[in-house]
Amino acid sequence: MSVPSQRINNRWVYAGPSKIHGHGLFARVDVPPGTVFVEYAGPRLPAREGKRLADEGNAYIFRANRREFIDGSVAWNLARYANHACEPNAESISRDGRIELRALRVIPKGDEITYDYGFSFRDDPTPCACGSASCAGVIVAAKRRV
Question: Which has the closest alpha carbon to 102: 79, 126, 129?
Fold first, then answer.
């Protein structure tokens, strides 16, 4: 499986085939804890438009705040390759109006980078294939797992 010809790397990470789901994001070097290694990028959309696109199946819509969503489906959004995991090694953070991914602990070179997508039970259940010992079986925010 080859990665589409798009922006597939930066100083910290690269995209490649994933055992979790299609393509994933991997550490190019050892990533120290607390390191912000990629921004979730794309056009900013009003909330109504973002919700509409998500309802139509755009899996790359990310809620930035109450008023805006980010359409991460664009080719230049490297962060779109990061998959969900129930025991993630990274987290999404909002900083200065931007969404970024930050290492929760050391992520060794070659390891797949994952974060908690934060889905609620109101969302359509999406099966989780992270393979962790505590996998919930569906992609759902840690705070909503039973």
Answer: 79
Per the CB < 8 A criterion, the answer to whether 66 and 48 are in contact is no
Neighbouring residues of 105: CB distance < 8 A, sequence distance ≥ 6: 33, 89
- Asked if residue 54 is part of any domain, the answer here is yes
Q: Tell me the pLDDT tens digit for each residue of 29-62.
A: 999 999 999 999 999 999 999 999 988 988 899 9
* Total structural domains within the chain: 1
Domain annotation covers residue 47: yes
Tokens coding 74: 């664009």
Reported pTM: 0.87
pLDDT of residue 123 exceeding 70: no
Judge whether 67 lies within some domain.
Answer: yes
Q: How much is the pLDDT for 139?
A: 84
CATH number, domain containing residue 60: 2.170.270.10
H or E element that contains 94? strand 90-95
Q: For residue range 8-19, what is the model confidence (pLDDT) as tens digits?
A: 778 999 999 999
For 22, 26, 88, 126, 140, the CA distances from 50, given in Å and listed in that order, are 24, 27, 25, 19, 20
